[in-house]
Every structure is written in C-alpha cells, then in structure tokens.
Amino acid sequence: MIITPLLLITSCALLQRDSTLEAKLNDIRLLSYTAASIGTSMAIKENPEWKPKFEAAYTNLTSLLDSGIITGPYLRQIISDLPIKELKSENARIAIEGATLLYDVSVGTKLDIEKAPYVKAAAMGIRDGLRVGLGK
Fold first, then answer.
1. How far apart are CA 126 and CA 136, in angstroms?
2. What is the pLDDT of residues 47-92, one digit of tens each?
3. Which of 130, 134, 136 has the alpha carbon at shortest distance from 32?
C-alpha cells in the first residue's frame, strides 16, 4: 500500500514544472478517483446504512457534471454531506488519510483546484471513484 502512493507522487505531473495541462488534469482525476473509491468502499463496508448517502452524492455529481456548471462550493457541498469523518475503524481512517495526504502533497498549493478546468477534473474523478466504490 505504501509503494503505490510513492509511485504516484514521483510520477505526478503536478510536481513537474514542464507538465502539460492535460497531464495535470489527468493527475487530479486519478488522485480524486483514488480518494473517492477508497473512501466510499471503506465507508460502505463499515457502515452499509450509509450507502444511500453515497448514492445521492454520485447522482448529484453526475447531474453537476451533466449541467456543465461545476464550482468549488458545489463540489465541497456534495462532499461535505458524506459521513466520512464518522468512520471508526483504524483501517478506514488510514486508507482515507493516506489518499488525502497524497492529494494534498501532490496538488497542495501548486494550483487552485477550485478553478476551471481543475474543479471539473476533480469532480469527474470523485464521481468515478464513487461509482466504483458503490460497485456500479
């Protein structure tokens, strides 16, 4: 589990000065997808009764992406409605904190994630991660 994040960080276009916008967007999607899929699957495994909240987030993100109106506040609101912080198991917290740390280290202050087109890439990654975590 430790090797994968290290490989992602060392090959991450967000950390390279000469990387293209497309490479950066790809990395944002991948990091968002990783965090969302891990968080969703761990949360539902630990608390199956939370599945409807994750289903709703998936539906809301899909609608948001289909509308073309994607902003940081909308995305934050959808995510804040999820009960991730309520997870109790050590494994779930470690997995989610690891994915979050990877995201923070690679994205960090290098770019404004809430600006287009980055927020769209993050929303797509989160939506796709939710889909996988929900087993769709």
1. 14
2. 899 999 999 999 999 999 999 888 888 888 888 888 877 766 666 6
3. 130
